[in-house]
Amino acid sequence: MQQQTIAVLVNDYPGVLTRVSTLFGQRAFNIDSITVGGTEEAGLSRMIITTGGDDRQIDQLMKQLNKLIDVISVTNLSANSYVSRELALIKVSASPSQLAELNGIVEPFRAAIVDVGPTSLIVQVTGDTEKIDALLVLLQNYGVLELTRTGSVAMARSIVPATAAATV
Amino acid sequence: MSVEMAEIQKKNSIPPIQFGEEVSGAETLLRCLLLEQVEYIFGYPGGAVLPIYDSLYGSYFKHILTRHEQGAIHAADGYARATGKPGVCIATSGPGATNLVTGIATAQMDSVPLVCITGNVAQSLIGTDAFQEANITGITVPITKHSYFVRDVRDLPRIVKEAFHIATTGRPGPVLIDIPKDVANAIAPFTYPETVDVRGYRASVVPDDEEVQHFVTAIKAAKRPVIMAGGGIIAASADQELLAFAEKARIPVINTFMGLGGFPGVHELSLGMPGMHGNFTANQALLNADCVIGLGVRFDDRITMGRTKEFAPNARIVHVDIDPAELGKNVSTAVTVTGDVKSTLEKAIPLITACESEAWIRQLKDWQEKQPYKYKTDGDTLKPQAVIELLYRSTDGEAIVTTDVGQHQMWTAQYYKFKNARSFISSGGLGTMGFGFPAAIGAQIAHPERITIAVVGDGGFQMTNQELAIVSQYNIPVKVAIVNNQCLGMVRQWQELFYDNRYSQIDLTCSPDFVKLAEAYGVKGLRASTPQEAEAVWAEALAHDGPVVVDFRVAQEENVYPMVAAGNTLDQMELGDD
User: Residues near B47 by Cβ (< 8 Å), separated by ≥ 6?
Assistant: First the structure.
C-alpha cells in the first residue's frame, strides 16, 4: 500500500465534489486528503487527492474517476516527479516573552508566527507533509492548542534536467 | 435546423415547431424530446410536473400513465432493452422522484439507456424542506451515469441533448434531469443544439488496430478457447458479428445471463449459461479452457463466484469492453481491447482463422449430452421447469420474455432457448423483484407484433401488479405467467440448503386469487395446476387477443439446480438429485 497523489481536473459546478467523494466511498477507496481550488482556466477546478493503494487499485480508481462526466482529466502525480505543499496553522501555548525562543524554532522551517496573544501564538508553515510533521514535534513541547492543516496541493514538475528541478 | 430535424418535426409535430418562438420550459422539454425522436413517455403526474403535463395535454406524445412511478421506470427500461432506444419516464418531485430510485439503480447495473425527468420545487424553495422536496440529484449520484439540476430554462435544450447523448453512447446508462417548477414555467425562445460537446466525456467505441491484432493473435494460438458473451453483445447490437466470428473461428460460446439471446441458444456452438445456476458444460468449459474470450462481460461474482484466482484457472483471459474500467477490474487479463464488441469483431473477423478446436468442441458436446439441465417429472404435479419448457415450445423461442427475480428467473434462463437478441429482459445486476411485469409492458409497446411474456413469481408480481390497470386500459396484450409456488422460492431454497430448513418469512399462501385479481382489472385470468391443464390454459392464453394472467400452481419444494453455493468455486457444482 503506497500513498499516491492524484490530480483531477473537474468542471466547477455544484455537486461535483459530491460526485467525486461518493465515487471513493462507493468503490471502497479511502481519501487521505483532498484539496479543491481554482485553476488557470475559468470554469474548471483542480482536486488534489491523496489516497493509498497498489498499482492495480490506483489504475482502477483513475479509470473510475475518468468515467465521471464532470471529470476532464485524471493524472497520477506520483508516477513522476512532482511538487507537493501543505499549509498548516498551529496554535501554540506560549506567552509573548517566549516569542524570540519560538522564532528560533520556526525560522529554520521557513515558517512564521502570524498572531501573538497573551497566552498563545499561531505559527504558519508551508511545505511537504514531513516538514510540517517535524515542526509539529518541536512545537508539541510547548503545547499545541489547536491545529488545522490542508491536504496537499501538488503539481507535476516541468520537464527539465534533474539538477534544475531541485526542490525549492 | 438540419434537414433531418426538419423532417422529424414535419412528420410528428402539429403545429410545427418554430425555432425562436417564446415557449415555457415545459414546452421546451417536450419539443426537445420530440426532436430526439421519443415516441413513448412513461410517467405519473404531480404538483411539480404540472407544467409539463399541461404541455402534454393534447400533444403528439403517447404517454403511458402507470399506477406507480416504479412501474413507469421499469416499463421505460423494458422499452429500452427491447429496442436499444432510450426509455423516457417522468415523475414529480419528492416521493415521485424517490420512487424511481430502484428503477434507476436497475438500469445502471445493467447498462440500460434511460432519460429520467423529475420535477422539483421552485428554486426559491430549494433547501427549505418544502412540501415534496427531495434532493434527487444528490440521492441518485451513485446510481446514474450522470445527472442534471436545471437552473436556467435557457440551459434546458443543451441539457436534454447532452442527456440523450450520454445515456445512449459509450456504455449506456440512466441520466436524470431534475427540473424545478419555476424553470418549467419560465419563458425563453426555443432553440435546440444540433451537436453535443461534453468536454469531460469521451465515448470512443472503435478499438485500436494494434489491440485487435493482439486479440486475434491470442485467440489463434488457443486449442481450447471459449467465448463468454455478455450484455455488451446486445447493447452493441453485435449478435450477427458474434455469430460470424464464432463460426469462422470455431469457438464455442457461453452466454452470460445478461447475454442470453446474443448468440442463438440452439446453435451447435452454444454452451448456454455459466455460473451459480449455469449448466455443467459451460462451467466445465471455463475450468478447462486455455483461452477465455470475454466480450462485453464484467466477470460478475455470480460467474466467478468471487473466487477470481480460481476462475478459469488454465486460461489466458482476453477481454473486450467499451468501458475501460471493466478491463482488469475483477479478473487479471492477458490481452485487453477497449472498444465496443461490434467494432472489435468487425475488425477481427477478416483476421481470424479457424482454431484447432474440434477435439475441444467434441469434448464439450459429450458433456452437454451427459449433463443437460434436468428435473424429475412427477405425474400430475406441475413442475416449474415444465412451465418454462411449455412457454418455449409454444413460442419456438421467438417471444420476448421478461422476468422478475428468483427461482423462476433462473429456470427461464435455463429452459427457454433464446434465439434472438433483445428477447430476454431481466434485472441481472441489481436483481429487482417487481421488474418483470412493467418491463414486459414497455417491451410489448415497443414490439406490438411479438408475443411478450412476463414470467413472474407470486412474490415479485405482488410488488408491481397494480400495473394490470394499464394493460387493461391500453389493451396491451402481455401474457403474464405466474410461476406460483406460494412462497419466496429462492429464499426458501437458500434457507433449506444453508439455514437448516428454518423457513423464516417466506410463506405467501395468503396471496390474492390471481385470477380474480386479473378479472378485477378487466384482464382475462386463467389457472393451471397440472401439466395437462397447463397445456390447455396456455394455448387459450396465447389465442386470446389481449392481456392474460395465468396462475401456474407449481410444486413448492422444487429447487434450482445446478447450483454452485456461495463461497465455492465452479468445480464444486451441485447437480441436484436425479
Answer: B92, B93, B119, B131, B132, B181
Answer positive or negative: Cα dihedral of B387, B390, B394, B399. Answer: positive
The C-alpha cell that represents B33 in the structure block: 424530446
User: Which cell numbers hold the place of A115?
Assistant: 498572531
* Cβ-Cβ contacts under 8 Å for A120 (sequence gap 6 or more): A91, A92, A93, A94, A145
Q: B230 CB contacts (<8 Å, ≥6 apart)?
A: B255, B256, B258, B259, B262, B294, B295, B296, B297, B298
State chain A's mean pLDDT as an integer: 92
Contact B325 A60 (CB under 8 A): yes
What do you get for the CA distance between the two ends of chain B, in Å?
67
CA-based nearest residue in chain A for residue B322 = A67
State the complex-level ipTM: 0.91
Q: How many CB atoms lie within 10 A of CB B448?
A: 9
| One-letter-per-residue 3-state SS of B413-440 | HHHCCCCCCCCEECCCCCCCCCCHHHHH
Pairing outcome for strands A82-93 and A144-149: antiparallel
pLDDT at residue B65 is higher than 60: yes
Q: Known catalytic residue: B495? A: no
The H or E element containing residue B454 is strand B452-457
Active-site position among B4, B131, B516, B557: B131
Q: Is A21 exposed, middle or buried (0-12, 13-18, 19+ CB in 10 A)?
A: middle
Residue B155 is predicted with a pLDDT of: 98
DSSP B147: E
Q: What value does the mean pLDDT take over residues B217-222?
A: 94
Q: What is the mean pLDDT of residues A117-134?
A: 96
- Residue A80 in grid coordinates: 513522476
B9 labelled catalytic: no
C-alpha to C-alpha distances, A96 to A99, A115, A117, A135, B117, nearest whole angstrom: 5, 10, 7, 20, 63
Residue B148 parent element (H or E): strand B146-149
Q: How far apart are CA B444 and CA B447, in angstroms?
A: 5
Cα–Cα distance for residue pair B177/B49, rounded to 1 Å: 12
Q: Let me know: does B185 contact B51? Beta carbons within 8 Å.
A: yes
Residue B263 has pLDDT above 80, yes or no: yes
Interface test with B, best of A66, A69, A75 (most B CBs within 10 A): A69
Could you tell me which of A79, A54, A51 has the C-alpha nearest to residue B328? A54
Separation of alpha carbons B47 and B38, rounded Å? 24
CB under 8 Å to B297, separation ≥6 — which residues?
B228, B229, B230, B231, B232, B256, B258, B259, B303, B319, B321
Write the pLDDT tens digit of every residue in B132-183: 999 999 999 999 999 999 999 999 999 999 999 999 999 999 999 999 999 9
Using CB atoms and an 8 Å cut-off, which of residues 42-81 of chain A contact chain B? 56, 59-60, 63-64, 66-72
- Taking an 8 Å cut-off on Cβ atoms, the answer to whether B198 and A18 are in contact is no
**B284-334 pLDDT tens trace:** 999 999 999 999 999 999 999 988 888 999 999 999 999 999 999 999 999
A26–B contact, CB cutoff 8 A: yes
